[in-house]
Amino acid sequence: MSWLTQIVAVSALNLRSLRQRAASSGVAVVGIAGVVIVFVAVLSIAEGFRRTLVTAGSDDAAIVLRAGSDTELTSGLSLEETRIIADAPGVLRNAAGAVASAELLVLVDLNKKGVDTPANVPMRGVQPAAFSVRDEVKLVEGRMFEPGRSEVIVGRAAAGQFQGLEVGRTLRWGEAAWTVVGIFEANGNVAESELWADAGVVQPAYRRGTSFQAVYVKLESPGAFERFKDALAADPRLEIKVVRETEYYAQQSQQLSRLIRTLGYLIAILMGIGAVFGAINTMYTAVASRTREIATLRALGFGAGPVVLSVLTEAMALAFVGGTVGGLLAWAGFNGYQTATLNWQTFTQIAFAFAVTPSLLVQGLTYALVMGFFGGMLPALRAARLPVVTALREL
Amino acid sequence: MKHLHLVWRNLLRRKTRTMFTFLSVAIAFVLFGVLATIRVAFNYGVEVAGADRLIMIHKVSFINFLPISYKERIKTVKGVSDATHATWFGGIYQDPSNFFSQMAVDPEEWLRMYPEFTLPEDQKKAWFANRVGAIAGRTVANRFGWKAGDRIPIQGTIFQSGVWEFTIDGIFDADREGVDTNQFFFHNKYLWEKARWGDGMVGWYIIRVGDPKASAEVAKRVDALFANSPYETKTSTEKAFVQAFANQVGDIGAILTAILVAVFFTILLVTGNTMAQSIRERTSELAVLKTLGYPNGLVLAMVLAESLVIAIAGGGAGLLLSWLISRQGDPTGGLLPAFFFPPKDMVLGVALVLALGFASGLLPALRAMRLRIVDALRRT
Residue A141: is it exposed, middle or buried by C-beta count within 10 angstroms (0-12/13-18/19+)? Predict the structure, then answer.
């Protein structure tokens, strides 16, 4: 019999007799599935958070902040500066003029649903061009705010996470009462965590005079960025920093994603080691309970290799089942779960959904197979090394 | 003594299994330690917040400023024994990812308000006297290798975007665990002198109350004093303030904690089962011991000793390891300042270790004890 047929034969025998070892195999499967659930679930938090920020940026948009600032909250620009920026070369122009929106960001204290302490919800004062710079923003309920009035439109995610953000409600914050007039969507990106209002109304309500914090511009093309940046850098009237929108948002997601990933990997590795021990114990039991069978096979002329591989195959098969079940459960249980947290880098709340992506599922399954491999290795070697004669005599 | 030897031989009989069981228990308790540490970390040290301190911020949000003139007015409120202020600087040292909090404060008032920050008397004096002086927490100082006398350039953001030069006059420690030393304090005077704006304004006030039980009323009185002024205030206890901040992190901390709890108990269950299994397999041996005249109590004690040895060795190793991990400090570079293994969770951990040892040994041991020798011997 060829080596390959031997492997297939022994593996098939093993797999078919799995039912007799259902209890201990079940423990191994559950153990591995558990690890994969946790692994995928924790990483889906980081992934969802990252995605919310990363999809917010587009290649042909740029953000201008004061030199030295890395977030809008620590930035500040004068009206004069924002005009110079809007007039710079490389900025896209349409019928209404330059597609550039000078904006300011303030914090509003609102309670999260189910929590009675205030959270820092970002409110953005925008200029009309904001809707051309971010063309993904669409009203889905109510109407647009009217310039000059204390009205806000609310991101879909913010409306879902914080108390009182319903169309028609009037709330007090800053030095004015604000009426929620509409709800908007923005492809699930970070803008949906914000409240938007007319910049001209936000400025006096927060005593900001005529100052802004950032200018969002749409460029003529992604390639126009360098031209725009160089022109601004060369202007002696400005002390600013220009970043591509994509980079700006990617950088903002760094710290929190890193934190969650660090913790996620730490937990997953510790658990993985635990699950490997579980798998090893299971496979040892499996091998031990079949000592005589294996010896018989060896006596019949089956080689050590096929025996090793068959035990490994069994372990990997169990791991595969565990990995698949775990991944599916994580997907069913966590994908799309809506939550909000504090982004330390911006000091503001950001609402997002857990994202169980195909790549995370593949990672989870791979991890399961690795666990199965290590769990099966030692017992497989033990099986191969069994001295045939003594093993036959056992029991 | 000879019985202990028997216990020991039993443990060594299947070395690999004993080894893996030991390791599983150790892993479970490492997870337990990590869990305890993360839980505290996501609470930002609510536990160590001063019970007799209040935090007063601008009513609109904590990024809005308050006038310095409020300080003397706060001190006139009944129940207030001291007050000082702080302003968030938000500068960048070399790279934005090198985060640590920088605050402009009144040095003498500040150290009086926060006695948990300790530093040598001569460094204190040097700092009080040096207008561009600053003190750095042990965590920051270790991270960047700073020592007293160093000149540190920090890139300004909110107040003035140029480079600000500071002299490190001292390194402070915390007198208890969980107090954030990833911080940097400097003279408020220096801030006002160099900043482009914000003269006469401060970020928030810290108020000490004479009687912590009266905190709520004092907070109300303070807010009432500034009601209808151009800068209305919102005052809460330091604990509530920190708790509100921790709540902002929201579900994520809770989810991670819940996951870890589930994982810990699953591993415990599986491992406990394995330990019990290894005793169940030897029921007939236990019957032999009983045939030889071993009293029930002794058999029970030996079985329990065996599972306790594994639990204590594994659990002890796990707790020790997780304690060592937590000693490494915050793995995120400043996002979770209160990163330590709380002693009360350590006690809980030890209790769980003992519970595991007893629970996994007791059931099979009791069963073995009650068995009729003949039945047990007949089982293979």
Answer: middle
Helices vs strands, H then E, count in chain B = 14, 12
Distances B139 to A188, B129, B179, B193 between C-alpha atoms, Å: 38, 24, 11, 28
Q: How many residues does chain B have?
A: 380
Two tokens, residue A299? 């006596």
Contact (CB, 8 A) for A330 and A40: yes
CA distance A130 to chain B (A): 24
Cα(B237)–Cα(B246) distance, rounded to whole angstroms?
14
Contacts of B22 (CB under 8 A, 6+ apart): B310, B313, B314, B317
**Average pLDDT over chain B, rounded to whole?**
86
Q: Which of A202, A229, A235, A219 is nearest to A64 (CA)?
A: A229
Compare CB distances from B61 to A34, A67, A120 and report the shortest one's residue: A120
Residue of B nearest to A382 (CA): B16
- Around Cβ B136, how many Cβ atoms within 10 Å? 30
The dihedral built from the CA positions of residue B321, B322, B327 and B332, taken in this order, carries a sign that is: positive
Predicted structure pTM score: 0.79
Please tell me the distance from the alpha carbon of residue A215 to that of residue A86, in angstroms, as a whole number: 8
Do B95 and B107 form a contact (C-beta atoms < 8 A)? no
What average pLDDT does this structure show over B244-264?
A: 78
Asked if B158's CB is within 8 angstroms of A76's CB, the reply is yes
Cβ neighbours of A109 in B, within 8 Å = 60-61
With CA atoms as reference, the chain B residue closest to A71 would be B157
Beta-carbon neighbour count of residue B13 at 10 Å? 11
CB A192 within 8 A of CB A186: yes
Maximum C-alpha span of chain A: 94
Domain boundaries defined on chain B = 2-45+250-378, 60-231
Residue B284 has a pLDDT of 77
Across the interface, of B23, B155, B251, the residue whose CB is closest to A339 is B251
Contact B158 A38 (CB under 8 A): no
- Bridge partners of A122, per DSSP, are A107
Q: Which residues of A touch B244 (CB under 8 A)?
A: 117-118
How many pairs of residues across A and B have Cβ atoms under 8 Å apart? 142
Cα(B211)–Cα(B206) distance, integer angstroms:
15
Residue B289's H or E segment, with its range, is helix B283-291
List, for residues A213-256, the tens digit of each pLDDT value: 999 999 999 999 999 999 999 999 998 999 999 999 888 888 77
Residue A208 clears pLDDT 90, i.e. is over it: no
Residue B69 phi/psi, 5-degree rounding, is -65, -15
Q: What is the pLDDT of residues B274-311, one digit of tens each?
A: 777 777 777 778 888 888 888 888 888 888 888 899 99
Which residues on neighbouring strands pair with residue B66, listed in sequence order?
Answer: B202
